[in-house]
Design brief:
The chain is an alpha/beta fold and about 350 residues long. It is built from seven helices and 21 strands. Strand 1 and strand 2 form a beta hairpin. Helix 1 runs antiparallel to helix 4.
Amino acid sequence: MPALDFRFHRGGLHFPELGLWLDSHERQKGPERVFVSHAHSDHTAAHREVILSEPTARLMQSRLGGKRIEHLLPFGAPRRFDDAAMPYDITLLPAGHIFGSAMAYLEAEGSSLLYTGDFKLRRSLTAEYCEPRRADVLVMETTFGRAKYAFPPTDDVLRAVIRFCRETIDAGDTALLLGYSLGKSQELLRALADAALPIMLHETVHKLTQVYERLGQNFPPYELFDAARARGRVLFLPPSVARSALLQDLGRIRSAVITGWAIDSSCRYRSRTDAAFALSDHADFPDLIELVKRVAPRKVYTLHGFAAEFASTLRRLGFDAQALSESDQLELSLDDPLALPVAHGIETATRPIA
């Protein structure tokens, strides 16, 4: 069995010969290690032993707690593990998704595989710049794998967000910015550094922002959310609390959701907000194509979002590509990359506020 054969199981990749999982969604309590690409909750679990970057470890501890064996790897430095059936080298490469997010570059028996996890090629104000590497096989996230998802220039979007906030505050109202507590909120907060706006952070955003600060990142002044003093401020909130009792006494409010799905004209109505801004921690369609060109793999596997459609697009461009995330479990061999997988069940794709 070739060393880099893998099995796709409920969102995670399992390499039996390496005793390794990549982004397992299920808790792994046995002897096998788990690479954790970043600290979003859909990529973490209470594993026994993990491989990850230091920022991911600190953020994961803040969100998940518990104790685990941690292998903290710096970016770009290969680490050899030789206590499984087959020795391998793993190198963490910056993914550009959120602070500390990493791609996994695996090498074993003369073959290489790059697993992106969630990634973004555009430069971020708070995440390390994405640095993909050529590999024989690419397993990539394809959340925005349709051609319609081409995001406007980031600077233009951020100026529009700032304008929305200023107009709301000038009108005597309260501005709500709805986005992920981890990653999106810190990116927005940094973007508002020169806007001189009064900012309050929901407790979950506040807690994670302080982890960023302990790891050396800087942000403009902000306060912890206090309903008694929140009127007339810019509030950073996770979408789950957008219509909670916390906001009942704030007077008039204007809300905006910050998501790549804002490309869809229906996004503002689905989210029941006054505005929607197309800013994401994920790569858009043009950058998905660009990543494949940079990696130049002989085989591509696609995951999440529009995985099947993007694989079809890649085949039209001359790449050997196949979707993974439509099947719950697959047995794959790098020795025969054109072989059809054996599928066992169906996995339902979901769309987060990306």
